[in-house]
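Researcher: Here's the sequence for the chain we discussed earlier.
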Amino acid sequence: MNASNPTVGLEQGDGASQRNLLRHAALCDSASRQEFYLTHPVVCNTLQIATAPVREVYQAVLQIIIHRTPGTPFIGDFRLGKTETISVVRTELQHTFPKLPSAVLIARAHDKPSEKAFFGDVLLDFKHGESQSGSAADRRIRLLRLVTSAAASLGSDRYIFFVDEGQNWGIQEYVWIRDVTNELKERGVYCTVIVFAHSELETLRDTVIATKRTDLLGRFFLTPRAFRGLNNVTELRDIMAAFDNPDRHEYPKGSGVCMTEFFLPLAYEHGWRLGDQAENLWRTFQVVAAGRGRDAENIGMQWVMSAIRAVLFAAMETDCAGLVVDREIWTAAVQASEYESSLQ
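Model: Thanks. This is the structure I predict for it:
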C-alpha cells in the first residue's frame, strides 16, 4: 500500500472489501496508521459532537427559522463551545433546510469603530477578495450582492446570519447590521440574525432598553436564551459514548473504526468503552471544582474534549485487553484541560 496515500487502491471491490482494507490500514498498517493519526479529528481537535446543549440550541434555532423571528441572542460563559455549536447547527440546518443560505460573522472589536472597517470585517468573513478595498458604501454594496446572489442561487427568500462573539459589537455595529437587513428586505431577502455572545452582551442589552432603542431590541435582543455547558454525568456519558459508536463518528471515513477503537484497538476489541468511564471523568471534575469551593456544573466542551483527548493519548501507551485507566490519569487529564483556572 502507498504510505503517502493510504486510500490508494481502495476504489475497486465491494463496500465490505473497501471497509476491511480501510480498517486494516487504520489499525494494523503502521505507516498508514501514522498518517491517519496525524489527520485524525481527535488529534487535530476538530471532532464535532452534538451535545445536549447543542441539541437545545438547534431546536431553538429551528423555531426561530420556522416562525421567521428576526433575531435572538444566545448568551453563555467563555469556552462553552459557542463557535463549535454554530458550526454543528449550520451543518444540521443544511440537511433540514438545504435551500436556506447562511453565513458566520465574527464580531470584532475596534478602538474606533467605523462603517468602513465594519463592512471590511464582514466581507473578510465571506472570504471576499476585496474586503479591504473601497469606501464603506462600496463594501456594503458588495455584501448586498453576495447575500442576494447566494439566496437567488438556492431559490430562497431567506438568509441566516450567525454572529459569533457578539459582545464585541456596540450599538453602532448593530445599527449597521440592522440597516443591511433592511436593505436586503427591500431586495426580497428576509434575514434572521442569531447572535452568540458572552454575558457582557447583557450589559449592551440593558443599554438598548434604557435608551429605548426598540428598533434594536425587537430585532436582536428581545428574547435572550441561555447557552450552557454540561450539567450532569448523563450528558457527559452521551458525549463519551459517541466515541464508541462508528455510526456517530468514524475515521477514516467508511472504515467503521470509531474514535475509541482507533486509539485503543486492543482494549476496544475486548469490550472497553469510553462511555463506561463517564463516572470517573465526572467525579474528577467534581473533585477539582470542590477544591475551589464550587460545584461541577456548566462544564464547557473545551475542557471535556481536552480531558478526553489526554486520556486517550495516555491510555494508548498501555493499550491491552484488560485496560485500566487509573485515577492519576483522569486527574492529570482534567488538570491539563485547565478546567480549574475557569473556576477562579
